[in-house]
Amino acid sequence: MHPKKQLLDDAAKLLLAELEGKELTARERNQIPLQEMATQDPSERILNMNEVALGYTEAQVRIEAMRCLQCKTKPCVKGCPVGIDIPAFIHEAEKGNYAQAVSIIKESSLLPSVCGRVCPQELQCQMYCTVGKAKKDVEQSVSIGRIERFVADYTREHGLDEIPHVGDNSGKSVAIVGSGPASISAAADLRREGHRVVLFEALHKAGGVLVYGIPEFRLPKEIVEYELEILRKMGVEIRLNYLVGKTRTVDELFDKDGFDAIFVGSGAGLPRFLDIEGENSIGVFSANEYLTRSNLMKAYAKTNALTPMYRSKRVAVFGAGNVAMDAARTAKRLGAEVVSIIYRRTEAEMPARREEIAHAKEEGIEFLYLLAPKRIIPGEDGRVKEVEVIECKLGPEDEDGRRRSMMIEGTESLRSYDTVIVAIGNDSNPLIKATTDGIETSHKGTFIVDPSTCATSLEGVYAGGDIVLGAATVILAMGQGRKAARAMNEYLATL
Amino acid sequence: MNKIIAKKQLSATVFQMEIEAPEIAEARKAGQFIILQLGGEFDERIPLTIADADPVKGTITIIFQAVGESTHHIALLKEGDYIENLLGPLGNPTDVRHYGHVVCTGGGIGAAPLFPIVEAMKAAGNRVTVILGARTKELVILEEKMRAVADEVIIVTDDGSYGEKALVTEPLKRICETTQVDCVVAIGPPVMMKFVSLTTKPFGIYTIVSLNTIMIDGTGMCGGCRVTVDGRTRFVCVNGPEFDGHLVDWDNLLLRMGTFKAQEEEAHHRCLIGLDAKEGEA
Description:
The complex is a heterodimer. Helices cover about 35% and strands about 15% of the residues of chain A. Chain A is built from 20 helices and 18 strands. Chain A has helices spanning about 5-20, 25-30, 40-45, 60-65, 75-80, 85-95, 100-105, 110-120, 130-135, 145-155, 180-190, 210, 220-235, 250-255, 285-295, 320-335, 355-360, 430-435, 465-470, 475-495; strands at about 40, 55, 175, 195-200, 235-240, 260-265, 270, 285, 315-320, 340, 365-370, 370-380, 385-395, 405, 415, 420, 425, 460-465. Chain A is globular. The mean pLDDT of chain A is about 95. Chain B is α/β, with parallel strands linked by helices. Chain B has 9 helices and 16 strands. Chain B has helices at about 20-25, 70-75, 110-125, 145-150, 170-180, 190-200, 235-240, 250-255, 260-280, and strands at about 1-10, 15-20, 35, 45-55, 60-65, 80-85, 85-90, 100-105, 125-135, 150-155, 165, 185, 205-210, 225-230, 230-235, 240-245. In chain B, strands 6-1-2-5-4-3-7 form a 7-stranded antiparallel sheet. Chain B has a 7-stranded mixed sheet with strand order 11-10-9-8-12-13-16, with helices on both faces. In chain B, helix 5 (about 170-180) runs parallel beside helix 6 (about 190-200). Chain B starts with a strand and ends with a helix. In chain B, about 50% of the residues are buried. The interface between A and B is large, with 44 and 43 residues.
């Protein structure tokens, strides 16, 4: 079902005329229907890169906000990794005070227009929502993410966002390594205290995973650019093409450039492969490479882009997280006829956001469950020809509480593909560890930090985001950036 | 933004540029490379080896061949123009040590990244023999600079228009047979590096090759540059660019280099049409 925005808006306006100004009882609020969000029609959107989800209309956002029961116990807030005062911002949205709603969100989260789009709300705030619980269906919870997205888009589009106040020059300076969500949040909070803040980004565009990883159809790049522009207006310097660990080491940033503290938010940048036979055949890509070509290098714009994109008819995607969905849906948009997600567990265990899975299905992505790739078979030209898969069954839960996948011997079969995209996660980037003495890391290569301050084993060096968490979410990365900035502001005050 | 200080055309398709990049000039060591992106929304990221650097002036020198659409665009830039994005130095420096007698072999444009290694090997007290190979005389580059540094320079061309009519492997084999060689460095087209490695293998001579594979970010993020070395997958950008030539799976590397062959041929065609138009205007 792909209701048009107009129809949804008409229905919401009628309802709003009826409910506006009334004192609503909990019972009445419970009866308000969940507001669907309009999307581009699947048959159209697989032909373009534009955003799929079109967002609420103003009438819709106010109706959806009315569904919130304003629980005194605020269970939703407990589900939010950064503890946004959700009922408070929803209350403002209900009244039409969108700028006020955004300032409430910004007390805890700097990037509502991003998080409203990419947070897995069904596993966070919306999982704990009383409305969803009462209806025994998390999909009936108040659509907190969609409301967040609307209010943030509204203030951006209406020029209502204020540039955060920057304190008097503290005389201290901070280097921030990377420019993804953790770094953006840390940069803003450090700059507010009047420190000089320089963000070092290795690529030729800032934004980290928001730019190279998440496709345009899920997160328009102009939103990321807008958020970076706010940082620039606050006086944060953004230095592109600067790889800390190579252009300068962490030690040199202290000794040569005189920085007083460093925040490392360099992400989980090293793609994992399965280490199976044939994985270096032509036509096997990491999801990072596939998405970077399309997103950062704009290779989807075939007539303009100088970076080529592999031409595929039949694509196998290994993995079932958001990155796998992004890669599969990108492949579809670039003209693949068959795109299969190959996953060794079942839909219930898939780590991707529910909305992305639903959108992928609507777009004709095939989901093959309980199936694991065993080897990739190239043709004589070295290009991918087939993938040998083996059937799996679910076994007992592992230490993470996820059911183990077990291969069933003797169930191998061949499936025909010309392209394979490996989306089974990333390891942390080893560069800073390799070039910085005294940084303590786990056996996985992630930085070990004090959980309350994000301080590393080196004085003055803090870290957050995927370099600490492994591959996590935007909101968790942002939360760590803020936590680190708070501790760094205290540390800088003692110097 | 990086200003082009000097530009020189070394042959019909080979260009040399000295570019302002103070931090890279200060940090770089022989064997490392940069990634260049012209700055447009649709421009490619291209890995290029650093041919020389002047930390005092704060400049690096690149030498490249205009073979594809992007390198043609770069070749059109003039002195005083700017290159918007320049990242580096990337990769690991060459394993420069006192080996004894080092033979440095450069194929075509590979002479450019070879030069700083020749210098560094010489500075480390080695006796250095250089073999430069090219298709034809006018594609032989850096001969004078090499002669100024190396103990001996041998030139070969495919067509015999200059030096010996031979492939680089022929004088290399002769030297390996007649004198003590302790290390061979080879930089050039993958086929040439493959055959250099095959030539030195029976002699058991440690052979360093510098790979220039398909690459996007150059920081370990994309894995497009992966090669099989000694049965393991390695990333050229962070584990290389130099590897033991006897352990590289050359056939897989050669296949992978052709991943986008069809698209590149189309782009090249488009680009030639574009260049013709520009020449017509001038």
